[in-house]
Amino acid sequence: xxxxxxxxxxxVWARRTGHDVWGARGERRTFGAKHWAEPLAWNGxxxxxxxxxxxxxxxxxxxxxxxxxxxPERARLWPLVEATPWxxxxxxxxxxxxxxxxxxxxxxxxxxxxxxxxVSCEPLIGPVDLHRITARNGAYMPPRRPR
Length: 147
Known about the structure:
147 residues; 7% strand; single chain; 4 helices; mainly alpha; two-stranded parallel sheet
């Protein structure tokens, strides 16, 4: 298990609110049909307004978590993403907790097709130098310009 997983903010928050939804034995929280239909309604409203909208999917979850309850949920997600082009499709990110995991995860992230790619440096348990990471396809983390 990556070291960041043992310090996961979502797990801490879930326990604080009385939910056991993380770890190898924890149940995963999933949603019903009403929740899955909401993005379709939001997409329609965005299309009507002529403006793209953003929806933060799984803010307290990991869509790619290696848990047996999640493959059916992921299978439901992809058609929903395709059916909602007015929601600014698709931003994808990764968490990195130290240099070792930044060098493993970020090149994969940079290779994925997405409108926006982002990195969440949390829980930051060691230094991370983003400037030296390059993907095989030539993508890289550009230096951030001061504002």
